[in-house]
Amino acid sequence: MGYLTQLGAITTALLASATPSSGASASSSTAKNVICACRKLSNVLPKDIIYPGSANYTDEATDSYWDKRAALAPSCIVVPNSADEVATAVEAISSCNAPFAVRGGGHMNVVGSNNINNGVLIGLTKLNQVKVNADTVEVGPALTWYDVYAALEPYGRVAIGGRLKTIGVPGLTLIGGYHYFNNKYGFAMDNVDSYDVVLGNGTQVTATRSSHPDLFWALKGGGGNNFGVVTKLVLRTYPAPQVSTTIQAFNESAVPGFLAAVCDAAKLNSPDPIAAGMVATVSYNVSSGVTSASLLGVQEGVSNPPDQFANFSSISSFAINNVTNMKDWAGQFETPKQQFRIQFAHRTIKADAAVLTSLYESWKESLSEVLDVEGLGPTFVANVISPTSVRVGNNNGVGNIWGLPEEPLIIWQFSTSWSLARDDRRMQNWARTVVERLHAQNKRKGVASEYIYMGDAGDWQDAFAGMPKKNVARLKRVQAAYDPERVFTRLSTGGFKLT
User: Fold this and answer.
1) How are strands ordered across the β-sheet holding 76-78?
2) What would the CATH number be for the domain defined by 243-456?
3) In contact, 467 and 473? CB cutoff 8 Å
4) Is 2-123 a domain of CATH 2.60.120.1440?
5) Whole-number pLDDT of residue 22
């Protein structure tokens, strides 16, 4: 009965935070609802509940997150062992009207999207099942993409998922999902055959093309916390026993040519493309004031060097080419947890080398405003959306919520890290001001797209504003049908929400 002592301490802390001077009755009501939920969870899932001060609390509330800003202080944490226990937890929390968050891989860096202060955290840590079938793989939401690639490697197959080692499966898949092979197989969302979902009232459903097809569609890019908790995904897999890889570096003088090569990649429109894609970044060295670019490229099959990156190879200052497998490739690129504070912000343009270079130059110039920020690590990222990658979703009979045209686009992104919490607001204001000013210029030039990718966006950005209005209206109808009590709107408020 040790949890009763912990619950008593939480009760005192929560009620103390809800004094009249800090917001009065609403705060007091919320605090009581959280106490209600923690007490119910302690009764129905006594082996799964964790309180502050418990042995695993820091692991679940802090160490499981990539961005240091995401380390919050939930009042209690429930770590279910199964989908049934997730359903029990959601039902208990919603019956108390308690605020909550859900964490899968913990990589999403929109603060509050997967953790919570003074509420309940559902940690999906133990839902780490994986089962390889002939041409699919069944995965739990606790897995990283490296876990998936490792499970598939003995079978010579690959799933369409994250490009770096520690990115989680559910977050990336539910917001759309970039992979090296998007140009041939579409995005991660286009390669999901089914979702097991716990709804806001604790009901469990399996959404497929033929069962709950409206929810199936809505989960293809609609975000992870608008409809329910996904407890299992079935993903299509493809033969890829070997991949050809390249790691390239580029001097500052080659950056314009590098960005032109990125735009060229976006314009490729073969009816039968070779699967190939990249991570393309430009970094600024705060100490030296010098920028340099880097390419991580992967191509299906054996080609050493991989010929789909010839435009880059001709101007790079350094290259390492190899033939390997997706597991070993992804295993090289760790994104350490709890090392930095990370802010994303992005907009989208039609693929145009001159415009992209101008954006890079404006980004570099704007850094003068924040060079005194401790631990500053600025990166300019360019992600490719090719006509062929969009065509997959448009032609598969289901579609996805993005509704993009089949035209070459570039997501240009600021990815910025820093050290201290005192600079959080300043860095957000800087990114927001510069990104929106540049986007306004691009709109006047007629080269802007309103599409926003949740995975690269800032927390102030409206990820649904750039989607077709008819798709947003359909999403809201699906939300009303599957979450009529608006549990995932009222109580799970973090992340990109349908409103």
Assistant:
1) 49-50, 76-78, 120-123, 100-103
2) 3.40.462.20
3) no
4) no
5) 44
